[in-house]
Amino acid sequence: NLIMGNIYLIIYYLVYLVAVFTVGPLFLKFLNIKFGSKVERWVFEFALGNLVYSLIFIYLGIFHLLYAKLLLVFYLLPSFLLVKRLLFGQLKLNIAFNIKKFLKYRWETLEVFIFLFLFTMFLPIVPHIFAFPTSWDPLAYHLVLPKIYLQDHFFSFYSWLSQTSLPIGIESLFAYGELVGDPRISNMIVFTFLLLLVIFIVYGLRSIFPRSVLFLALILFLYKRILFTPVSFNGYVDFPFAPLPCMTTNFCSDVSADRE
C-alpha cells in the first residue's frame, strides 16, 4: 500500500530526527559552546548529531560489530526515551504556546518574500522525495556501500566495487534506510541537509552580510540545483557535505572575532 508506505516513511524520518537532535545537544553540552541564536544552535545540533551516528557506524565496522539490529538500537533508543519522558510527565511539549508565538511574530517584507521564494522552489521537488532512488551514483555505490557493510558486519573489500577501498563517510547515514527497509530515507536525509544549508545561509550568516545579499545568494545557489538536477532529492553526498565546511569556517571566524 503506497499510502501506508509513505506514512511509515515519515515515521522513520521522525525517529531519525529525534535521534540526531538528541545526540547533537549532548555533544554541544559537553563542549560548552555558546551560539548567537537558537536557530544557529539547532543547525549545529543537527550536524553534530549526524556526525556522531556516522562515527557509530564507522567504529562498529572497525570492530566487526556492524550488525543491523545493534545499529538500529542506537537510532531507536532516543525515541523510546522521549516517549517515556512524555508518558511520565518529565517532558512537556508546549505546542500551543509556540504556535501563538509564531503567529505574533512580526514578519518583515523581505522575510515574507524569502519564505515565499523558498516555498515555490522546494514545492516541486517534494513529490520526488517520496520516490524510490533512480539516479546512477546512489544505486551504484552510495546506497550499496552501507548495505554491503551491514551484510558483512565490517568494512570488506570487493575488487569489482572500487569504492569499497575508500573510507566511508556520509554514506554511513544512508544505512538507516537499510535498517528500516526503505531506501527513500536517503532522499529525506539529503533534503534535510539542503534545508540546513538554506537555514544557515539565512540565519547563520546574517551577522556578516545584509539580508538582501543573502537572498541573492540563495537564488544563485538553489535555482539550478533544485530545478535541473536530482542531487537535492536522491542519495547523493553533495548537499550533506556542503554545509559542514561552511559552518566550520563561519564558526572559527566568529570565535576568532570574539577573542579579538
Q: In total, how many beta strands?
A: 0
Largest sheet: number of strands, sense, barrel closure? none
In DSSP terms (H or I, runs of 4 or more residues), the helix count works out at 13
Strand content: under 5%
Q: Mean pLDDT, as a whole number?
A: 83
Q: Could you give the order of the helices and strands?
A: HHHHHHHHHHHHH
Q: What's the shape?
A: globular
- Gyration radius (Cα, Å) is 19 Å
How many angstroms separate the termini? Answer: 60 Å
Helix content: over 70%
**In terms of structural class, how would the helical and strand content be classed?**
mainly alpha
Q: Give unreliable regions as ranges.
A: none
Features:
260 residues, mainly alpha, 13 helices, 71% helix, globular
What's this, in brief?
By secondary structure, this protein is an all-alpha fold. The chain has helices at residues 2-31, 38-62, 68-87, 95-104, 109-122, 126-129, 136-142, 144-152, 175-180, 185-204, 211-228, 238-241, 243-259.
Characterization of the model:
This protein is an all-alpha fold. The protein is 71% helix and 0% strand. The protein is built from 13 helices and no strands. Helix 1 packs across helix 3 and helix 5 (109-122) runs parallel beside helix 11 (211-228). The model has no long low-confidence stretch (mean pLDDT 83).
